[in-house]
Structure formats: structure tokens, C-alpha cells
């Protein structure tokens, strides 16, 4: 997606850059002081990344209220460049302001942001996964005709970088996709209530596929048609198969349904896919069908059985090869994070209660929280 300014806009941009830096600095500093007096506050809190915009903001804030009254927040996430944090600390040190680090990676991971983003990236790079890296690149407006906000740069595990132009749906999906119920996250202590009310202007909620099972037949026909346009054979699913799919909870939502339909069209020769085939495909993910019930995951499935099912799927995904070395520690860390997170959520962020629940020393729990990157906000609501 490109936005190219016309001649009038380019003239305006040129005029906007013709400023008196000293006079503009004084004007902004005066405005900041007036606003603070109006709300009876003495200091400023800023997000600092090490980039030009935030660096200039810190300089103006320090000039307006003094460095002792400025607090800067570094908010890195899993894909942040470490260089940004280094430059940000250099800026903070240069202006003598206090700065603290608040890692938002665990919050984004808990909300499923990385999973949804990666799903959109795989529309362009099917092999994208663990060990890969990505970033969105905005073209330099001074070197091009306009802003280009749709370039994706991916780097594979071997270090090879590829730049890809993104269609608008993929760009928007990577930048802004979310399907979490923020009110539920607030009650779990996973999202700040004050931040919710700042963001919650006109909320639009799309129900999950499991909440609108009546849409499954239409979606199946739609995805089969897409497959035909891509050279796959025309297929249909038996009535019994459709009923099984309508009862399935679809934890991967519409994307999981689309992948299943594509797999059916590509792997099976028969024109009509039977209920037996659908049942076998749904069981491939180790989510067994419960006879006559709407819940496809048995209520009496133990944690050990669930882990065993997961490991079977995990080993099967390597198609006869072995997973990379270090599996023992990887599995332990995968289990440890959600265990500590669930305990902190159940106790609404109370570390004393969470330590008792886990049977751990409080200091040990604190260490685990720090090592695993678990970040749970304490709710201000009363239980």
C-alpha cells in the first residue's frame, strides 16, 4: 500500500520543515508546562525506544520539567532489536532521566498476538516459524515518491533476508489482529482496566467459529471453491461429516477450518469426503470425538494424557526425523510458563497465594516469574 502526496502536499511538507528550532522548542516547552499546571501534575512519563521521535520527546520533557521529574519506560517485546534498548539507555543517560524496563513480550504472547501475526506471515512465507525473524519496513519518504507501508522483511534461521511486498489484508492482519476478550483478561488480571477504558471506544467483536457453527457448511463450500481456483479437485463433505465439524470446537478458529478443507481437497481422491475421514482428520490433532456429545475433548482427560497426546503430535510433525536436541528442557519450560501464569491468574496476581498454591517458596516463585517472563497485573477489583 502506497500513499503518494501530490504537488500541493509536497509544497506543504517543504513549508512545514521551514521552522525556527529554538522558537519551536520554547513553544512546546511552554505548552507542556501549562498543561501540567492545568492538571496539577509535576512530572511526565514517556515511552522511550531510542528512535528519533521518542528521543526528541525526552529532550523536550527534560527541558520543560527538569530531568528529575521525567520517568521513561522501555517496553521491549520478543522481536525488539536489542540495539533499540541500548540506544534508549544512552538517551536516558544523556539527559539524566530515570528509565525502567517493562517487558511486554509475555503479555503479547499470552494474548496470542504472535501466533496470529505468524499465521498472516505464513500466507506469504509458508515456511515461517521458529528460528525466523521479521519486521515491517517503511520506505524513506525522502528517497521515494511516497510512503510504502507494505514491505515485509523476513530472515530465515540461516540468516538469509527476503523483502516481500504485502497485500493490504496481510499488512492489516500483522499490524492489528486481535481476537481476545479484554474484559475476561481484566478479570484474570492479564490486562490493565484503566488501559481498557482508554482503548474501548467502538468495540467490534467477531464471534469465534465455535459460537457460530451454523456458518461451517458455507465456509466449507467457500474454501473448496478457493481450492478449485488454485487447481484442486472439486469436493463435498457428507452430511455426517458436516455434523462432526459443526460439533468441533475449532481452537484454531476459521484458519484451522480452512487448512483442514485444503488438506481434504489435496489428499483425498473421492468426490465426497465421508464422516469417517472427517473424524480421523479431527483426531489427527489428538482431540478425540466424544460419541453423541458436543464436546470433542473428553472431560476426564488427565494432564499426563494431554501431554502425551501433544508429544505424539510433536514427534509426528517431524515426519520420521527426530526433533532438535534439548527437548527435555524445552518441554519443561513450555509447561512451566503456563503453570506459573495460570497460578498467578487464579490468585489475581497475589504472589503469596500463588506460591502456596504451587508449593513453592515465595522467593523461588519470584525467580521463576522473572526467568519465565510472566507478567500479571494485579486487578484493582475486589474478588
Nutshell version of this structure?
The protein is mainly alpha-helical. The protein has helices spanning 7-16, 21-38, 52-65, 82-95, 105-110, 113-124, 168-176, 182-187, 193-199, 216-229, 239-247, 253-267, 275-284, 303-316, 327-346, 351-358, 362-372, and strands spanning 2-3, 44-47, 70-74, 98-101, 133-137, 147-148, 151-155, 161-165, 236-237, 272-273. It has four domains: 20-104, HUPs (Rossmann fold, 3-Layer(aba) Sandwich), CATH 3.40.50.620; 111-178, no CATH class; 212-305, Orthogonal Bundle (Helicase, Ruva Protein, domain 3), CATH 1.10.8.60; 327-372, Homeodomain-like (Arc Repressor Mutant, subunit A, Orthogonal Bundle), CATH 1.10.10.60.
Detailed description of the structure:
This protein has 383 residues and is mainly alpha-helical. The chain folds into four domains: 20-104, 3-Layer(aba) Sandwich (Rossmann fold), CATH 3.40.50.620; 111-178, no CATH class; 212-305, Helicase, Ruva Protein, domain 3 (Orthogonal Bundle), CATH 1.10.8.60; 327-372, Orthogonal Bundle (Arc Repressor Mutant, subunit A). The chain has 17 helices and ten strands. It has helices at residues 7-16, 21-38, 52-65, 82-95, 105-110, 113-124, 168-176, 182-187, 193-199, 216-229, 239-247, 253-267, 275-284, 303-316, 327-346, 351-358, 362-372, and strands spanning 2-3, 44-47, 70-74, 98-101, 133-137, 147-148, 151-155, 161-165, 236-237, 272-273. The strands form four sheets. Strands 2-3-4 form a three-stranded parallel β-sheet, with helices on one face. α6 (113-124) packs antiparallel against α7 (168-176) and α11 (239-247) runs parallel beside α13 (275-284). The radius of gyration is 26 Å and the shape is globular. It starts with a strand and ends in an 11-residue tail after the last helix.
Amino acid at each position: 500500500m502506497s500513499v503518494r502526496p501530490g504537488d500541493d502536499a509536497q509544497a506543504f511538507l517543504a513549508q512545514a520543515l521551514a521552522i525556527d528550532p529554538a522558537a519551536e522548542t520554547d513553544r512546546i516547552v511552554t505548552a507542556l508546562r501549562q498543561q501540567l499546571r492545568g492538571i496539577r501534575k509535576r512530572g511526565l512519563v514517556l515511552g522511550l525506544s531510542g528512535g528519533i521521535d521518542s528521543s526528541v520527546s525526552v529532550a523536550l520533557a527534560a527541558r520543560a520539567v527538569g530531568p528529575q521529574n521525567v520517568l521513561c519506560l522501555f517496553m521491549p517485546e520478543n522481536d525488539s532489536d536489542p540495539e533499540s534498548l541500548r540506544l534508549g539507555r544512552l538517551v536516558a543517560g544523556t539527559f539524566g532521566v530515570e528509565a525502567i524496563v517493562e517487558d511486554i513480550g509475555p503479555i503479547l504472547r499470552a494474548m496470542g498476538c504472535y501466533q496470529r501475526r505468524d499465521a498472516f506471515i505464513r500466507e506469504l512465507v509458508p515456511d515461517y516459524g521458529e528460528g525466523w525473524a521479521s519486521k515491517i519496513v517503511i520506505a524513506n519518504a525522502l528517497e521515494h515518491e511516497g510512503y510504502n507501508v507494505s514491505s515485509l522483511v523476513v530472515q530465515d534461521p540461516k540468516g538469509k533476508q527476503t523483502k516481500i511486498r504485502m497485500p493490504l489484508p496481510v499488512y492489516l492482519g500483522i499490524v492489528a489482529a486481535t481476537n481476545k476478550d479484554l474484559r475476561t483478561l481484566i478479570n484474570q488480571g492479564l490486562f490493565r482496566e484503566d488501559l481498557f477504558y482508554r482503548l474501548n471506544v467502538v468495540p467490534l467483536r467477531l464471534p469465534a467459529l465455535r459460537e457460530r457453527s451454523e456458518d461451517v457448511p458455507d465456509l466449507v463450500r467457500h474454501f473448496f471453491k478457493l481450492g478449485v481456483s488454485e487447481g484442486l479437485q472439486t469436493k463435498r463433505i457428507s452430511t455426517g461429516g458436516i455434523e462432526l465439524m459443526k460439533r468441533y470446537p475449532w481452537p484454531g478458529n476459521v484458519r484451522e477450518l480452512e487448512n483442514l478443507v485444503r488438506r481434504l481437497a489435496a489428499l483425498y481422491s473421492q468426490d465426497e469426503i465421508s464422516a469417517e475421514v472427517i473424524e480421523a482428520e479431527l483426531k489427527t490433532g489428538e482431540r478425540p470425538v466424544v460419541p453423541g456429545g458436543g464436546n470433542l475433548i473428553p472431560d476426564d482427560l488427565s494432564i499426563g494424557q494431554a501431554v502425551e497426546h501433544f508429544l505424539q503430535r510433536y514427534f509426528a510433525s517431524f515426519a520420521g526425523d527426530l526433533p532438535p536436541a534439548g527437548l527435555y528442557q524445552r518441554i519443561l519450560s513450555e509447561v512451566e510458563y503456563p503453570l506459573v501464569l495460570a497460578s498467578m491468574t487464579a490468585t489475581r496476581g497475589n504472589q503469596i497465594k500463588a506460591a502456596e498454591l504451587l508449593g513453592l517458596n515465595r522467593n523461588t516463585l519470584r525467580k521463576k516469574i522473572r526467568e519465565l517472563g510472566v507478567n500479571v497485573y494485579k486487578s484493582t477489583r475486589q474478588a
